[in-house]
Design goal:
mainly alpha, 2 domains, elongated
Amino acid sequence: MRCLKFFIMYAFIASNPTDSPMTLGATITYIWITQIFFSIIPWNVNWDEMNAITSGNIVYELAKPIDLFPLFFSKTLAWRFGSSIVRVVPIVLFNLIVFPMFGFQEYALKIPDGKYVLFFLCSIFLAYILSSMITVFLYSITLYTIDASNFLRDY
């Protein structure tokens, strides 16, 4: 599916490069970055935590001498970060090794200059925090209403 996106964007940009708001390299990098960090989007929750809240097993967490918000936030942040790492390692290795090996450097992920990498890392860090906060907010709504069916769908 990713290759199809590349070819569609390549066709649009190659047909009229002056009207395109992004260059081909920037567009390909954008597609790779969206594939790598797709798990940041807070469209899903950790159903173990959600089931603990709805079933009442959250009592075991409340009995511990820790605050519930930092516990949920750290678990959610680790869960989102871990799912991104699972995607980032193969995609980056594939882009750095396989594409140049077969002469497809044009479709590989391009690394920008140093200060832009720093800005990117700061924005990704803030995106992880925001996404985790949204998910913890959904947990909080479920904790007080016992039902989050209006907010979440189990697809």
